Amino acid sequence: FYTRDSPTAVTFTPALGYLGTAAPVTIRLTGPGGQTRAVTYTPTVTRPPAPDAPDLASTGPASAAQSVTFEIPAGGSIGYVDAGGRALADPTVPQGSFALAAASSVSTVAGRPFDPTLIGAVGTVIFTPRRGVTGAVPAIRYRVTDAYRQTSIGRYTPAVTGYPSPRRIRGTNPDQ
User: Fold this and answer.
1) Domain ranges, residue 15
2) Are 79 and 85 in contact (CB under 8 A)?
3) Which end of the chain, N or C, is more open, meaning fewer C-beta atoms within 10 Å of its C-beta?
4) Would residue 32 count as lying in a domain?
5) Are residues 99 and 28 both part of a single domain?
6) β-pairing verdict for 96-106 and 151-161
């Protein structure tokens, strides 16, 4: 959509996922002496950079879930993939299970129509260790896809620290 920001400025905001040349708009300017001039503005929208799916790691105690968080582009999505890039359901490894979560927030600009490019989102990968597990956990792959169907694949590698060693409690018994 086009908006007139001032008497001399027009802004084109493309719909999320739009690529190509938009319909031109003609702007008529009038100078101080009453002279007029018509200017045509034809915006071209190109693909933005692909999303980033960083390699992430976390370390946490065996008694609690752990997670990592990353950005999801507006109109984007997240999912697990195998080594060949094929979609997977929630992966489970002998050491525990993984889950995905996403949260979003919406910003608005006064005087402008709703703009889905102002939606911010974050993805979270959660690992829940099985009881008694410690040490390194095999990495899983996750994919971030944007509104232009561009993708990036990252890895998440959790590690589980051990259970605390039991303490000996000394009693009042002299035989201890």
Assistant:
1) 2-45
2) no
3) C
4) yes
5) no
6) unpaired
